[in-house]
Design goal:
The chain is an alpha/beta fold and 374 residues long. It folds into two domains: 110 residues, Aspartate Aminotransferase, domain 1 (Alpha-Beta Complex), CATH 3.90.1150; 237 residues, Type I PLP-dependent aspartate aminotransferase-like (Major domain) (Aspartate Aminotransferase, domain 2, 3-Layer(aba) Sandwich). The protein contains eleven helices and twelve strands. The strands form three sheets. The protein has a seven-stranded mixed beta sheet with strand order 2-8-7-6-5-3-4, sandwiched between helices. Strands 9-10-12 form a three-stranded antiparallel beta sheet. It has a two-stranded parallel sheet with strand order 1-11. The longest helix has 24 residues. It binds 4'-deoxy-4'-aminopyridoxal-5'-phosphate. The site of 4'-deoxy-4'-aminopyridoxal-5'-phosphate has 13 residues, from helix 3.
């Protein structure tokens, strides 16, 4: 007799029962603008350089990789020093398999059962999901109607909940909105004040989309603030989502702390070699970012001209609406061969900036759908 075991039949942790995994649909359609990837494949010179560095690494695969990825962290520190306004050494940078793993390590070290994390929704859904999977309580803080963080309301939420970890995503996914350094500092101070009796609160600024912003990086704010952490990724600006390389910059003590929870040899020699090659091509890849920023601004302007309600964007994607039934519009755009993202923000959808041709196809599809639903 064959029976099918369902997830609820398993001795699963209670807090995971009835929950869904993270899941942006991976559909095979002509124009895929739903997961904030770069539309540009790696240039051939970079592909060749990766092959060279990976071959070199392959010769040593009988050995475990550099456990602390010191050379890679040095290159990442150099990149931040050069582009983000603060000179850093490798002791202040940590790397893992995507910034998701960095966030998980931070919550393993600074969250956990009996502790609480607070973020400002709608924001990157993995902040709440990783909190839950590490046993950390989640509190959803407020945003304004325009998806900004109101300093006064946010400080009040921090004072009320006294979180152990605070997440600020800037530029924010899925809205595209950036947060000013003044607001970030006010929230940081409030979080430290509210947690004064327990050595402060970890304050995480997720800058996954920093390179696409009209504003400078918030990196210099980590200086002199030992609980202030900034996270970054090579998935977006470096066009390397498939590589799985994320990193953080913080006080050296935070880097020591995440080493208490990281798995030994978590970053494969192949990953380290590939990331190293991509960093050698940073200037070329940042050139693509400039093209994407111009295209992003064009999407904002054209959607606005079409009569959409568009959220100002500092990222490589644009939130637009307002639709009576966003899910129905999502479906219709898909029927026109264009996949965008429904993040569950009422009346809104999110489109990732693609190539010029993809963006034209998206804008044509929006024009057609707006006629259909008019
Ligand atoms: N932070 C934000 C705000 C994101 O949007 C994403 C990816 N969508 C990540 C972190 C995780 O990126 P990765 O794990 O690919 O570095």
């Amino acid at each position: 007799m064959s029976t099918t075991t369902r997830i609820d039949d398993l001795p699963l942790r209670e807090e995971l029962r009835g929950k869904s995994p993270y899941g942006a649909p991976q559909l095979d359609v002509p124009v895929r603008l739903n997961t904030n990837e770069s539309p540009y494949p790696a240039p051939e010179d970079l592909v060749r350089r990766i092959a060279e560095r990976v071959s070199e690494a392959a010769r040593g695969l009988n050995r475990y990789p550099d456990r602390d990825a010191v050379v890679l962290r040095t290159r990442l520190a150099d990149y931040l020093s050069r582009t983000a306004g603060l000179r850093l050494g490798p002791n202040r940078v940590w790397a893992a398999n995507g910034s998701n793993e960095v966030l998980q390590q931070l919550l393993q070290a600074f969250g956990g059962p009996g502790r609480t994390a607070l973020g400002f929704d709608p924001s990157y859904s993995m902040h709440a999901l990783i909190s839950r999977s590490t046993g950390t309580g989640w509190v959803s803080g407020p945003r304004t109607e325009e998806f900004a963080i109101d300093t006064h309301a946010a400080v009040a939420a921090i004072r009320e909940h006294r979180p152990h970890v605070v997440f600020v995503c800037s530029p924010n996914n899925p809205t595209g909105t950036a947060v000013s350094p003044e607001t970030v500092l006010a929230l940081y101070e409030a979080a430290q004040e509210a947690a004064r009796d327990r050595r402060g609160a970890l304050f995480v600024v997720d800058e996954a989309y920093a390179e696409f912003s009209h504003r400078p990086s918030l990196l210099p704010l980590i200086e002199g603030r030992p609980t202030f952490v900034l996270t970054r990724t090579m998935s977006k600006a470096f066009g390397a989502a498939g590589l799985r390389l994320g990193y953080l910059a913080a006080d050296a003590a935070v880097v020591d702390a995440v080493q208490l929870v990281r798995l030994p040899y978590h970053l494969s020699a192949i990953t380290q070699a590939t990331a190293h090659a991509a960093l050698e091509f940073a200037d070329t890849l940042l050139g693509y970012v400039e093209e994407l920023k111009a295209e992003r601004d064009r999407i904002v302007a054209e959607l606005t001209a079409l009569g959409c309600d568009v959220t100002e964007s500092d990222a490589n994607f644009v939130q637009f609406g307002r639709f009576a039934d966003a899910q129905a519009v999502w479906r219709r755009l898909l029927d026109h061969g264009v996949l965008v993202r429904d993040n569950g923000v009422p009346g809104r959808l999110r489109v990732t900036t693609g190539t010029r041709a993809e963006n034209d196809a998206f804008l044509d599809a929006v024009r057609a759908v707006m006629k259909e639903i008019a």
